[in-house]
Amino acid sequence: MSDKKKNNDELIKLVLEGQPRAIARMMSKAETGNPDDRIAMAKIFRHSGRAHVIGLTGVPGSGKSTMVRSLTLEFRKTGRKVGIIAVDPSSPFSGGSILGDRVRMNDLTGDDGVFIRSMATGGALGGLARPALDTVDVLDAAGFDIVLIETVGVGQDEVDIVSAAHTVVVVSAPGLGDEIQAIKAGVLEIADIHAVSKCDRDDAPRTIADLQGMLSLGRHTMRSREWKPVVIPTSSERGEGIEDLVAAIDAHLEHLNKSGEMEMRKRRIAEMRILKSAEDVVRERLRKQRDGKLAVLLDKAMNRTIDPHSAALELLDGFNEKDG
Amino acid sequence: MSDKKKNNDELIKLVLEGQPRAIARMMSKAETGNPDDRIAMAKIFRHSGRAHVIGLTGVPGSGKSTMVRSLTLEFRKTGRKVGIIAVDPSSPFSGGSILGDRVRMNDLTGDDGVFIRSMATGGALGGLARPALDTVDVLDAAGFDIVLIETVGVGQDEVDIVSAAHTVVVVSAPGLGDEIQAIKAGVLEIADIHAVSKCDRDDAPRTIADLQGMLSLGRHTMRSREWKPVVIPTSSERGEGIEDLVAAIDAHLEHLNKSGEMEMRKRRIAEMRILKSAEDVVRERLRKQRDGKLAVLLDKAMNRTIDPHSAALELLDGFNEKDG
Predict the structure, then answer these.
(1) pLDDT the model gives residue B165
(2) Which residues make Cβ contacts (< 8 Å) with residue B228, sequence separation at least 6?
(3) How far is CA A237 from CA A70, A234, B282, in A?
(4) CB atoms closer than 10 angstroms to residue B209
(5) CB-based contacts of B291: which residues, under 8 Å, 6+ apart?
(6) Are strands B167-172 and B52-58 parallel, antiparallel or unpaired?
(7) Taking CB atoms and an 8 Å cutoff, what residues of chain B touch A185?
(8) Mean pLDDT score of chain A
(9) Half-sphere exposure of residue B279, counting CA atoms within 13 Å on the CB side?
(10) Is residue A159 less than 8 Å (CB to CB) from chain B?
(11) Interface mutation target, options A93, A274, A302, A310, chain B, most CBs of B under 10 Å
């Protein structure tokens, strides 16, 4: 047995025991996705599949980070372990925000039943879906009952990630500007649960009524035929609504399990992950082509003697045999 | 000659003459990317390469749509034809916003020297980069001197699109919330030019100083070694700064051409487009696999007897021969 394999086997053992430093190290391996660590990640995957994965998304200013914190504290009351993956540049968890927010999360970081991981956005081509969902496996295998993925609800990559959760919570807030509202519209239809923040405000009933009106128009049929999305008012100011939100999340999980929809969602998520991984592999192989085919095609594209799509077809022609 | 080919040849002729309805039809073909229309798009590509492609991005509330409008009017003063591609759900051009904004763009739509195209976000896997850049080709081939791509500066897909411009303008505004500022940080480093909107406001000097401070720290070296990004204050309220912004854009174009950096950028853009197209092709081929390999792998993944990455490798194994 090689040292590398031995080290990884020891690491996996510690991850499965829930040892925080081992979890953090395995997550780094999951993120970078080195071929050497793929065997370890495959083993981790075999031990995953028990956590309830919750995607939480909302536009900037919707108060979703505060809600992640409140939700976590509420889940902890029932003893459930909570892993958090923040891929949102505006989240205090991902380090994107201001000191005030950081202070607010201090009550989470001292708790062994909570693990927070932030993921940097802005990598090269490929996006965050593959690494984000691999880190979900790590938390899942490490015995976290709940894995919360927080993303800002803008951009296809972020929507892909949050759609890969079993339960999707979309956070709305009253009083956001029109430009923000326009952006928000794109993400509403993936919600299983609508959480409305800041319901101590005078204009909150309007936001709640708007969401309920939208749901009555039947747009909720996009994600599930049997589950009717609910609207949950909350107020972190008054400490209200978070029990209701947890109850709605638990009810959704029960629905998924009883209706057989959980199997369908897991299958859809697995499909998405396999295809994203395949795309990553192809991208890597194309970039590594040793025969300089890409450089030749680039010269032609610069002369406008070949278009990008035809160049892509030429590039793909037989690339698996040579470079796989 | 088939009817289809004849029709496409006629359409291409009309596009090259700048006929608006032909441009719109060709753009629809570019967006959907049907194999039948790829030959037409390849011909369009051969006639492109003259336009100055400008990417304009900024967070919600930064006033970038107003700036696109002002910029367009300013470019028109010198007789330059302007094509606009709005992939921003908060833009009035893309139909994501409110009536007030729509009214503000009326003075553009009556002008033959301006063509506005909006692209819907929220497609399936794959993103908007390929279709957005193909529509740039159409406007370019149709003789537009300037092609402006407007995106909201959040999400990898949007950043990829705007990075594929020759000149990138990032719009900042004073007085945005902390959450918005945190998101903004991710896009600042791709700017060739920083445009600050709403400089009639009292807190604008702070925003300008912050940007200048950031630039003095040398972060601008990320995109270009020789061009030092500039900060241009503007005010649509007072009608100020847009001439300066156009002058900065023109100066950047001159720099690109004189320094040889334009060739480098065009090469990088072409490479990105070829690789994105190749990924699209592979994604399509994988989804169409007729032998049910994906379904078998999905069953295994559901049983946790194979992980997504290993499944991807199996899926790719020899797929080109069978399904190409």
Answers:
(1) 96
(2) B215, B220
(3) 11, 9, 50
(4) 11
(5) B322
(6) parallel
(7) 89, 96
(8) 85
(9) 25
(10) yes
(11) A274
- Determine the residue among A94, A98, A179, A282 to mutate to test chain B binding: the one whose Cβ has the most chain B Cβ atoms within 10 Å: A179
C-beta atoms of B49 and A160 within 8 A:
no
Q: What is the CATH number of domain B48-261?
A: 3.40.50.300
Position of tokens 């190290």? Answer: A25
Inter-chain touch A308–B121, beta carbons under 8 Å: no
| Length of chain A, in residues | 324
Q: Which residues pair with A83 in a beta bridge?
A: A115, A147
Three-state DSSP state, B196: strand
CA distance A203 to A210: 11
The answer to whether B38 contacts chain A (CB < 8 Å) is yes
Kindly list the domain boundaries of chain B, sorted by start residue: 1-46, 48-261, 288-323
3-state secondary structure B257-310: HHHCHHHHHHHHHHHHHHHHHHHHHHHHHHHCCCCCHHHHHHHHHHCCCCCHHH
Tell me the per-residue pLDDT of A220-230, one tens digit each, with 9 for 90 and over: 545 666 898 99
Written out in words, the top-level CATH class of the domain with range A48-262 is: alpha beta
Question: Is 80 exceeded by the pLDDT of residue B126?
Answer: no
User: Scanning the structure block, which residue is given the tokens 């490929």?
Assistant: A126
Is the CB of A260 inside 8 Å of chain B's CB atoms? Answer: no
Query: Which ipTM did the prediction report?
Result: 0.84
Q: Is the pLDDT of residue A321 over 80?
A: no
Among the ranges given (A238-252, B109-123, B210-224), the one the predictor scored with the smallest mean pLDDT: B210-224
pTM: 0.82
